[in-house]
Specification:
Largest sheet: 8 strands, parallel
Strand content: 5-15%
Number of helices: 12
Distance between the termini: 6 Å
Structural class: alpha/beta
Number of strands: 13
Radius of gyration: 19 Å
Strand order of the largest sheet: 3-11-10-8-7-6-5-4
Helix content: 25-40%
Order of helices and strands: EEEHEHEHEHEHEEHEHEHHEEHHH
Length: 357
């Protein structure tokens, strides 16, 4: 049976796949634009998008906003009318400025997690930009829905529910990662229950997009049959020619083995999932020293106590300099064996999903 389209308000993605926003510099205009071109929803990460700008360290905020403008426009050009989103983390110190800029650039969707985006509707109401919070529990979805309904008289245009097998920073404590009640299928069910009254109040469907460890077409079909309207995938899209990361970054994905995947304690106080390398081994051994922070980019970060700068580490990794950085990745990264075009990946995912749907 044919996969359903993913409808978020008046936006219609022919393929119900959202490409996860991956920073720093992993999903910019090339990846996002090509995913959107091929029927999915392409997403640019708003975490330090200006890292290649010549004045990045002198004028970080302006460099990031300037680069974001450019990437949004380039992605729109590549996509030829496809759906382009921006992922904006709540913990960014410039969260509000980035949201305002994304709305000015008429981005189709703002995805927002790493915190509760309780004030997001304040900056988007009256625009055509859709707002989609990213949550890791039914409780978080409930808090957001109640707050937005009470203060702004709106409900989310969609919700991404992310399970503990995702890459990057996770919305779980270390002891929750393997517990059954926190697995994607169960929190998906919780979120679907939470949104029911708001669907009645606003007389529209609130699509729920399942994320975290989604790897195969069968995974997509299974999650849609459980009630999801679509899925979000990150790790699979890194292993594409169009991904904005360096070839060395992509090679790290190809080389990763099951035993290389580890949980880390990020300097910003969150658990994360990454590919083990010498940099992370040195951090565990206490060999890295706090560095001078040019600008405190994340609210929870305390530069005086941080063992390393997470932004610098991820920028170095994006460029393939793994002596000074590491790669975030999802739990299934070890299954990747080749780099493919975005078009081929999406066609294969859809074909396989339709066998099980």
């Amino acid at each position: 049976m044919k996969l359903p389209e993913l409808k978020i308000g008046n936006l219609v993605a022919k393929v119900p796949i959202v490409q996860g926003g991956m920073g720093v510099g992993i999903s910019l205009s090339s990846l996002a634009g090509n995913v959107a071109l091929n029927g999915g929803i392409g997403v640019i990460s708003a975490v330090e998008p200006g890292f290649n700008e010549p004045d990045h360290f002198r004028n970080k905020k302006e460099a990031n906003l300037r680069a974001l403008r450019s990437y949004i426009q380039k992605a729109k050009e590549i996509s030829k009318g496809g759906i382009i989103g921006v992922n904006i983390m709540v913990v960014l110190n410039t969260f509000e400025e980035i949201v305002v800029e994304a709305v000015k650039q008429k981005v189709d969707i703002i995805f927002s997690g790493a915190g509760l985006p309780l004030r997001l509707p304040q900056f988007t109401k009256g625009s055509d930009t859709k707002i989609v919070p990213i949550v890791s529990s039914g409780r978080a979805a409930s808090v957001i829905c109640k707050s937005w309904h009470k203060h702004y008289d709106v409900a989310p245009d969609a919700i991404v529910v992310e399970g503990p097998k995702a890459g990057g920073h996770l919305g779980f404590s270390e002891d929750e990662i393997d517990k059954p009640e926190f697995q994607l299928e169960n929190i998906l069910k919780d979120v679907l229950e939470v949104i029911e009254p708001y669907e009645l109040i606003y007389r529209r469907k609130i699509p729920v997009i399942a994320a975290g460890g989604v790897y195969t077409g069968k995974d997509i079909a299974d999650l849609i049959k459980m009630g999801a309207s679509g899925v979000q995938m990150g790790t699979r899209f890194v292993a594409t020619f169009e991904c904005d990361a360096s070839d060395r970054f992509k090679q790290a994905y190809l080389d990763a083995k099951y035993e290389d995947i580890q949980l880390i304690h990020s300097p910003v106080g969150l658990i994360g999932r990454a590919i083990r390398n010498q940099f992370l081994i040195d951090v565990e051994a206490g060999k890295k020293k706090p560095i001078k922070c040019m600008i405190n980019c994340l609210k929870p970060c305390n530069p005086s106590k941080a063992p390393y700068c997470i932004a610098d580490a991820l920028i170095n990794a994006q460029r393939g300099n793994f002596d000074k950085g590491f790669a975030f990745a999802g739990a299934n990264v070890y299954r990747i064996s080749e780099i493919v075009p975005v078009k081929k990946l999406m066609e294969e995912l859809v074909s396989e999903a339709e066998l099980y749907f």
